[in-house]
Amino acid sequence: MSELQLLSNGAYHLLVTASGHAHSRWHDMALTRWRADASLDDGGARCNVRDPSKKLSPPAEGGHDFQQGRATFQHRGRGRGIETRTEIAVARDDPVSLRRVVITNLCDTPRASSATSYAEIVLSPPATDSAHPAFSKLFVQTEIEPALQAILASRRPSTPDDPTPWLFHFALIGGSPAAVLSFETDRMRFIGRGRGAGDPQALDNDAALSGTAGAVLDAVAAIRVAFVLEPGASITIDWLTGAAASREACVALARKVRCDEAVRQILAQAGTYRRTVMHTLGAANADALLYQRMAALLVYGSAALRAEVGVIEQNRRGQSDLWRFGISGDLPIVLLRVAGPEFSAVTRQVVQAQAWWNAFGVRSELAVVCARSSDGEPSCFDRVRREIDAGPGANRAGQPGGIFVLDGNAMDDADGGLLASVASIVLSDGDTLAAQVARRLVHVKAGPADAPLTTRNAELVNRVPSATPVAANGFGAFTPDGREYVVTTSAAHMTPAPWVNVIANPEFGTLVSESGSATTWSENAQQFRLTPWSNDPVSDPNTEAFYIRDEASGRFWSPTLLPTRTTGAYTTRHGFGYSVFEHTEDDIESELRMHVAIDSPVKFSVLTLRNRSDRPRRLSVTGYVDWVLGDERTKTRMQVVTERDPATGTLFARNGYNTDFAGRTAFFDADDADNDICCDRADFFGATGTLAAPAALLAPGSAPLSGRVGAALDPCAVLRVGVDLAPGQSQVVVFRLGAGKTIGEARDLVRRWRRPGAPGEALEAVHAFWRDTLGAVQVHTPDPTLDVLANGWLLYQLIASRLWGRNAFYQSSGAFGFRDQLQDVMALVHAAPALVREHLLRAAARQFVEGDVQHWWHPPSGKGVRTRCADDLLWLPLAT
């Protein structure tokens, strides 16, 4: 189970993970970025310590202590090396957090080292940031204040009523070594394209950070402290982060805490707020430790205290069905089932636990469901409601983020199933709270043991690429016939930003970058994503990944540049309705072709492998997708249920909680119906795995995948197919990703497109459609580049991205805009008049007799907003 430490002073909240990553909030404002991900804990503020021989993340490899009002981590390298001790605390009276790192040289020789802090700056409500991160980042600007040797950051208001919070971050150096400080606020410069916070390019060497500041578009706070430690010597580095409402207040607060005495006071008073909360609530230390342990279950939605798997699988009601109980469903839910008329100790303790979580910034909704009573029996509902109204939880009763006492007599079985399926924690008033938590944690499934990183795999994951291929503009160019755009990249030579192809039909599509990263949707690119939309042009994480593994050596790589970066060149060919990725690794030549059927909700990933070596090769191909089945994975992950369909052998996934897309069944399938499978990210990645190096691929030998499917997992779909190749031989492996409106339709789609030759038939239909559509009008000018754009690419992007997909890397709308798509289709009058007519009727149907229209609306539900924007009213008659 993932652990958390909650630190606070009532207004400033700090969440610390077992990896030492932290997330800070001031009131309801996120200061730094973090997403709850129990399987890949790769977000949050952190510190990295580096010496000439290796990079160390002190908290990740050492023990931790979350017992008191601070978080403590200890790490000691193997043999005689560097020892680190980290303490994290929050100031008692100010919105300030402290990360103290003490580094000691245990060697007999001097060590040149560095320590670097890193945090992604948000300065907005968390929901605003997660809905559209790239847009939110545009408003953050930074500066490096020389007098304070600090990074300052602020958010420009988007409206006059927006708050304008400020943040500071600086480092204090203690001990004898002389230290050199450098600064970075540009995430692209720090991390580098195609990399993540766990392996940033800034840690490849000890060079000073660039000092970039201003309107950096993607702001971070990073300070590097470079130093030399003599044998036995230590250095103490105190990183402090704080917030205020104005620049003046922010600078004043930074000056106040920029001294050794202030730091000592923060550490000395670290447990004060915790003790105050305990006293106020009447909680013992054992209670506080129990509530903190439960907080991790609440935040991560772990299976440990959730409802039975069958209850989650059977639910078909959605968030709106919670509203009649007064429950919003926007916060984690705790369900307490009360059986008897007495107000039990467990009920009092759960009410107290919610107050504890609130005090440390973790909000929740507590649903107390009282058992049904027969005529003449004392009413459990009346007794519990009176006790709540008269007790310490009275001010939270019926309030947002509060306590909701529900009468079982007024609920049916489906209501109870809904509440149980959405709750992060399900309890009863039978046994003690501590006993229930302990008993349930014992039965939590254990994932596969983490395999050691072999020498050859370590070389593969951490290798620094060399040769940079050269193309027409340094990255790519159109082919002479203009039918493809060809990009040549390597891990050391990536495009400045993701160069994507939107491949779609009217109701289904995928967006794929030159690195192979993709997001796929069905019906609505925002509201029913099958896989995540990252909106991250820096890391461009690949959550639809493929891995090729040599089963004899254990070495693995990807047929695309991401997620597993290797030394060679990668060629990407974006075409009309398809993209192709070519790469050769270890004498295995691969071609991965992605396309979407023009008339079906199915994406094909066709991988051709050729053995260019002089010996037989035993390989495996692993396909991986993260399931969303809604808008954001953090909202849907608890409700996605997976299964292996007995009729077809394919992996199915559904989200019964998403009632706007009721019955939809997503599928991930491969040619070999008997292949190795897994539907739990915790199993696939292990405790310390990454997208680039999942634990399941690091395991020695041919260890099978876990085979786990069902509910209450961290949902994904993994298929592994074996491939044996003689010298010179080639073989094709086909993966299919799609969705049916019902489980029966999903089965029909799987069977239809599993046929031999079906992927080729689908691709030929794609070629035919675009050839006919884009060839209807041709222009010839003195400029060949203009001809290429006008004779294909502009109309292709208009139809695939604007009209059908309504999706792009920067903005994933999913909605029709009354004005926007009318403007777009005017360009299709000659090339595709049927599409113009279809859309004119679609837009006309969004008018109202009152004279207004829907400015935008989401298919298939039609939800949207009505306005009287003048341009909406003008564009329909003009387009007509």
What this model shows, in words?
The chain is an alpha+beta fold. 25% of the residues lie in helices and 32% in strands. The protein is built from 23 helices and 42 strands. Strands 22-23-29-30-31-32-39-36-35-34 form a ten-stranded antiparallel sheet. Helix 8 crosses helix 10, helix 21 (818-825) runs antiparallel to helix 22 (833-844) and helix 21 packs parallel to helix 23 (870-879). The longest helix has 22 residues, at 784-805. The chain is globular and about 75 Å long. Mean pLDDT is 91; it is low at 55-60 and 446-470.
Arrangement of strands in the largest sheet? 22-23-29-30-31-32-39-36-35-34
How big is the Rg?
28 Å
- Could you report the average pLDDT, rounded to the nearest whole number? 91
Helix content: 25-40%
Beta strands, count: 42
Biggest sheet descriptor: 10 strands, antiparallel
Count of runs of 4 or more consecutive helical residues: 23
